[in-house]
Amino acid sequence: MRRIVLLLSAPGILLFGGAFSLSFLNPLLIERAAREVMRIEVERRIGEKIDNLSSSRVTGLAQRALKRTNTDIERTQRAIREELPRKVANVVADMLDADCECRRRLAGYAERSESERLASLTQVRARLAVLIESTYASVGTSLMREFRIFSASNAVAFVMLGLVTLVRRRAALQLLLPAVVLVGAVALTGGLYLFNQDWLHTIVFGQYVGLTYAVYLAGVALLLADVVFNRARVATRIVNFVLQAAGSTTTAIPC
Length: 255
What we know:
The chain is mainly alpha-helical. It contains 9 helices and no strands.
């Protein structure tokens, strides 16, 4: 049993220690591996910025409109209605003349309008590209921070598991508990990465990630501390409960 725990801890140390080192040696490789997770987060942040921008523009327009009194609005509308028939008649009469300057102006307006529209679209695309690039950089920084926390914490946990296993030779059965917790966490994270990028994105960029890591590490640390300082009494009870529930006659004893 002790060999099994050591065989679990050694690959864990190599895997997560190597991943932590790789995040400094070749961070671009980590970004490529998590491309889908980053894409989801970049789209979410860009969408929020666009929504906020639209809301602020609408609010600004509404505030400017409210500055005009109802009397001013009614006066302007009345003047437009009174002047409209004359202007329409003049424009129609002019447009019927093939050599009218208004036709050349209309063509010029159309050309300028199209040019301005294309220029506006080009500016919007350029600004959007800059926004996406800056957001990507921010997301990449967040991802790398969380990846390093995750890999380093797991590497330390596996190192502790291996050291305690070497020190407490008789507590091999009890040490299966923290080993199962660590391997289970690795399997869960790996499964989310392979089969459910949305959930992995939620875990990586969620606001309770730090708390989740803290609880996870605290559980492992408490189990290891119980083995080292409390002769594995708590772990022994848990193991015996599981063995009895499984119908096994094997019994663990404090060591």
